[in-house]
C-alpha cells in the first residue's frame, strides 16, 4: 500500500510570496516546524550560469513558494534554512545547496536527501532514484517531470510565473514528505540509518567542492597535449616501421614518405595483423588480451592507445569546460557513483588523470595560495588486514614495514633487503592489490608477464603464507551469494540479484557475485573512510577559522586549496582528520597518511 499523503496532486496547496511582508509572515510560521522540505527552480544546472527563480519551502500540508526575482532580503529564511534544529528534506540536495549558496549565500544544514536515501536502499539493483520514479513507487502517483516543457529559462526573463509553474514547484516540495516517511521505515528495517547519515553529512562538502572548483594552467596544459601528440606520433611510426616488412605492398605519399600499412585505430585491421600476419590467433584486441600477449607490437599498441585515450579524454575537451564566470573547472561529483559507495566524477573526470602524470602538474594554486594533497597509505590493504585479521598482514602494518616487500620476501624465500623493487616487489604488489578485485591467475599472469601456470603457483604460495586472507575472501564470497548482499565497515549494503539455477549463465552469475562480494567490503569501506575524512576536514577548517577549502577527492586522496601562510597548518589538520576517520573504522590495524604542500597537484 502506498504511504498516505495530505496534498492534492492536481491542485496542491501553496502560497506564492513576492513581498517582504509576506516572507516575514511565512518565516514566522516555518520557524515552528521541526521538518521542512526545500527545493529550488532555476534556469540552469550550472551554479554560476543559473538564475535562481523560486525557492520552495514545504510543510506536509502546504508549500511556500518564494519569488527569487522579486524578493531581495532573505535574512528571515536564512535563519530557517541554516537552523540545525530543523530537518530539511531535499531531492538531489547537492544541487539545491549549491544553487542557494551561490545565489543567496545561505547554507542548508541538517539534510535528509531522498535521492541519496533511495540510492542506499536499492544499492546494487540499478534502479532509478529520480523523484518521478519514487513518487510512483511509494505513492502510486505520476508526477509531470517534463522540466523542459515549462521553459523556466524564458520565465526567468519575464518573471511571469503561471499556475502550472507554481503547481510544479509546490509538488516538488510536498511530495518529499511521504517519500521520506516510507524511506525512513526501510532504512531502519535494513540497518542503513548510519550510512544514510554519513551520506547526508558529506553532501554539503561535495556541493562546496563543486562550487570551489580547481584552477588550471591553460598554457601548460596545451604544452602537455602537444608533447603527448608527439609521443603518439612516434609510437605510431615505430609500429608502422616494425610491421611494414610483413606487407608486400608499400605505397608512398605525395612527399615520398612510405604510407601506413594499416590503420592503427581499426580494430579489424589490428586483429588481422596479429592473426593473419603474426599468427597469434587473438580473440580480440582488447586491453586484457593485448596485455597478456608477449609481443613487442602488442606492447607498443597499448602505449599508442594510452596516448590516444588521454588526448581524446582530455585535450581541448577539458579546457572547454572551464567556467567563464569563475575561470575554474567545476567537476560534477556523484557521491554514490558506484555500488561500492565510491565517488564518480565527470565534466571533467579527474579520476582518469593518472598519478604522477604531467596533467596533474597543470592543476595549480592561484597566486598567494597552495595546494595541499594527502592520501592514505595502502588504505584498502589495511581494510583487508582488518577484515581477515591475518597475523602477518596486521604485524607488517603495526611494525610500519613495507607490506609489498614483506610479501615478496615471504613468497620468494629471500631476505627483505634482497627484494628487488621492479621484480619481486612489483609482482607481490600486483597480487596484493589484485586480490581486492577478485583477480585470478590469468589476470595476474598478464600483469606481471608470466604464464598462467606460474601465476597460479604464485597465488597458491601467497594464500599459503597469508592463509587467513584466503579464509576471509572465501567467506566474503560465500556470504554474498547466500545472503544476497555485502556490507562495509561503515554499514553500507550492496545488494545482488540472486542467481537463478535454471539460467544458462548461472555459474557466471554466481562467479560475478563472488567477485563483488570480495571487493565490495574492501573498496566500500575505503569509500566510507574518505567520506568521514571529508566531513572531519571541513569541520576542522571551519572550527580553526583558517582559509582552506576542499577542492576534490580521488579515491583515497583529498586535495585542498589553502592560503599560502596557513598551508602547513592545513596539511597538519588534514592529515590528523584523515587519520581520525581511519581510526573510526579500523580497530585492529593502524592507518597512515602522507601529504605535501605544493604549487601544483602532486603526490
TrEMBL record:
Record the organism.
candidate division WWE3 bacterium CG08_land_8_20_14_0_20_40_13
A single Gene Ontology MF term assigned here is:
DNA binding
Q: Which residues cross the membrane?
A: none
EC code = 2.7.7.7
Biological process GO annotation list? DNA-templated DNA replication; double-strand break repair
Q: Where is the 3'-5' exonuclease domain?
A: 14-188
Q: Which Gene3D superfamilies match?
A: 3.30.70.370, 5' to 3' exonuclease, C-terminal subdomain, Ribonuclease H-like superfamily/Ribonuclease H, Taq DNA Polymerase, Chain T, domain 4
This protein is called: DNA polymerase I
Q: Which reaction does it catalyse?
A: DNA(n) + a 2'-deoxyribonucleoside 5'-triphosphate = DNA(n+1) + diphosphate
- Note the superkingdom of the native organism: Bacteria
